[in-house]
Specification:
Largest sheet: 4 strands, mixed
InterPro entries: SusD-like_N, SusD_RagB_dom, TPR-like_helical_dom_sf
Strand order of the largest sheet: 8-7-13-14
Subcellular location: Cell outer membrane
Family: Belongs to the SusD family.
Number of helices: 22
Structural class: alpha+beta
Organism: Sphingobacterium corticis
Distance between the termini: 39 Å
Strand content: 5-15%
Radius of gyration: 25 Å
Keywords: Cell outer membrane, Membrane, Signal
Length: 598
């Protein structure tokens, strides 16, 4: 988040008892008390800054920072555990998710784990102290709303992982009674009710928009976006899931329509507010879609984790997106970490609305131009993925994995009459890299000296297109089909693809898949729709290009079972909830483990 750097410094100073002097000529730090903190607005800001630093989940749901978070590859785990891509450093897979993708999630946990009660306690302490602060009522109200938003976000992060969790709203102390120290899990619907109520309350007291040094803090519309998303999750879990453990997991079907209505209302309030809109500044639709994620503070951004262009290793807030995922050249000779499956590429329709799936038999016959293979697609295809021939830094990427000679043989090394047999990219990969969020001006050779997590693109947590898609889904499930079609067509019109005249649930799911690819939604979406057993238990494919020397066209090979013959993707029924783990249930005997984990 873009929190003032001096506030970060203050936070660090507060935590170091050996420091002798505060730089702003305050009392020695080893005697700063709660009363000092909550009478000084700068210290209050610093206290809240601790919370942002602890909420690593703001970075695509990772559970660490630096090398364990968005400073390295962990930030991409959520992409890789879904059906979007795999981590394509085959000799040494770094991603934790790579292991769990193949049915290996068990009671020991480890996948996307985040038990955020340490952070919740910090927030609860803040809320307890701020109410008695001598600061102005306006400051108390706004900071209380900010803290309640952050706490609601923490609970949402836990609810979508574990279902029902204990709801703790006051700071626990070691001398508290046992029932306070060892709370039982609340019902899942109770947790979602709490999240929705807190987000709604926060929205009433947060500013409509944040500016200047406060960019990166939540606004009224960020709180409403949280309500929109959380209520939508609750509704779909109630509609498609099963209630177990007396409601600790699962939501009663009787609540479904009410949750859809709450999501609809929150989305509508953002739409009617007039402060956010789809980004539509560039005439070229592909360029426009790419710039949603490159132009800071554009009108589509509702809430984002802020980044600068200073390496995390040098004390900045840069991250690793470009160095890890950009095409070559690369300081490690690698890049292209997240490589998309062919199935994701095929999910992008033609501009006229025809399905985008290749005829896999016909495409492997003869040779084809790239336009014949991937031409006339939804412009979001070209802004989301890169492949053979994609323009990059003034050149075209070459993924061909062999050269077809005039005699019909395939040469896979060296060159033939000055034409290289293989391309300059990872031609043994899936054939597709992740282009969304990448900045062509970034120096991806800097990694040779270790100074590479310095990408400055902000990570968008809530954006307006998601709000429209949330609205469309809720409206459809409430029987408001025309309203749903109108909302989803706003997204498609901006994308530059034909509008829909009718709508099905499958079309809504499809639109989310292509619009929100690589933004941390897909894994949670297929879980809440309860389609993950089907959608994530698939032996996915890749694609290989062979360059024909004479025609300069391409022979195409479909690579089936790309994850390998032993790595078979498998999502089990119990994986709709993550395990609490033995460690947590042992520490608190009132915590019942989720079904299916022994």
């Amino acid at each position: 988040m873009k929190i003032l750097r001096y506030l970060m410094s203050i936070t660090l100073l507060i935590s170091v008892s050996s420091c002798e002097k505060w730089v702003l000529d305050k009392k020695p730090l080893n005697i700063i008390s709660d009363s000092d903190v909550f009478t000084d607005e700068a210290l209050i800001e610093a206290y809240l800054t601790q919370v942002y630093a602890q909420m690593t989940i703001f970075a695509n749901d990772v559970n660490g920072s630096g090398m364990q978070g968005d400073g390295y590859v962990a930030v991409f785990e959520l992409n890789e555990v879904s059906d979007e891509c795999l981590p394509q450093w085959r000799d040494a897979p770094q991603s934790n998710a790579y292991t769990f993708k193949y049915g290996n999630l068990n009671i020991n946990g480890g996948l996307l784990d985040w038990w955020g009660y340490g952070t919740v306690r910090v927030i609860n302490m803040f809320l307890q102290k701020i109410s008695d602060s001598p600061l102005s009522p306006e400051v108390i109200v706004s900071k209380t709303a900010e803290a309640r938003f952050l706490r609601a976000f923490c609970y949402f992060a836990m609810a979508k992982r574990y279902g029902g969790v204990p709801i703790i709203t006051t700071p626990q102390n070691v001398d508290d009674p046992e029932e306070a120290l060892y709370p039982a899990r609340a019902k899942e619907e109770e947790v979602y009710d709490f999240i929705i109520a807190e987000a709604e309350a926060a929205s009433a007291d947060l500013p409509e928009m944040q500016t200047g040094a406060n960019l990166g803090r939540p606004s009224k519309y960020a709180a409403l976006a949280l309500k929109s998303r959380a209520a939508l999750y609750a509704a779909s879990i109630g509609q498609f899931g099963t209630v177990k453990l007396n409601g600790v997991v699962g939501i009663p079907s009787a609540r479904v329509q009410g949750y859809y209505q709450k999501s609809l209302e929150a989305s509508k309030a953002i739409m009617d507010g007039g402060k956010h809109a789809l980004y539509n500044a560039d005439a070229d639709k592909t360029t426009n879609f790419r710039n949603i994620f490159l132009v800071k503070n554009n009108p589509e951004v509702i809430f984002a984790k802020r980044h600068d262009n200073i390496s995390q290793f040098a004390g900045g807030s840069g991250w690793s997106i470009d160095f890890i995922n950009a095409p070559r050249p690369n300081g490690w000779g690698r890049g292209m970490y997240d490589q998309a499956y062919l199935e994701l590429a095929e999910a992008f329709e033609y501009v006229d609305g025809r399905p985008g799936a290749l005829n896999r038999t016909a495409i492997q016959q003869g040779v084809h131009t790239m336009d014949e293979i991937w031409g006339d697609r939804d412009p979001r295809f070209y802004a989301t993925l890169y492949t053979q021939g994609t323009s990059w830094k003034g050149d075209n990427l070459a993924f061909h994995a062999g050269l077809r000679l005039p005699n019909g043989t395939i040469q896979t090394a060296g060159s033939y009459q000055g034409v290289l047999a293989t391309g300059n990219q990872d031609y043994l990969g899936t054939g597709f890299g992740m282009l969304k969020y990448l900045n062509e001006s970034h120096d991806n050779m800097a990694g040779a000296s270790g100074n590479w997590p310095d990408s400055e693109q902000d990570w968008q947590i809530f954006r307006y297109a998601e709000v429209l898609l949330n609205y469309a889904e809720a409206a459809f499930e409430l029987g408001l089909t025309s309203e749903a079609v109108s909302a989803i067509n706003q997204v498609r019109d901006r994308a530059g693809i034909s509008l829909l005249t009718s709508l099905t649930r499958e079309k809504i799911h499809h639109e989310r898949r292509v619009e929100l690819a690589y933004e941390g939604h897909r894994y949670w979406d297929v879980r809440r729709w309860r389609t993950a057993v089907r959608d994530l238990s698939v032996r996915w494919s890749g694609l290989r290009y062979i360059l024909d020397f004479e025609t300069k066209k391409f022979q195409v090979q479909i690579l089936n079972n790309f994850d390998g013959t032993t790595n078979i993707p498998r999502f089990r029924e119990e994986n709709y909830y993550l395990p609490l783990t033995n460690g947590r249930t042992s520490n608190n005997p009132k915590l019942i483990e989720n079904p299916g984990y022994q």
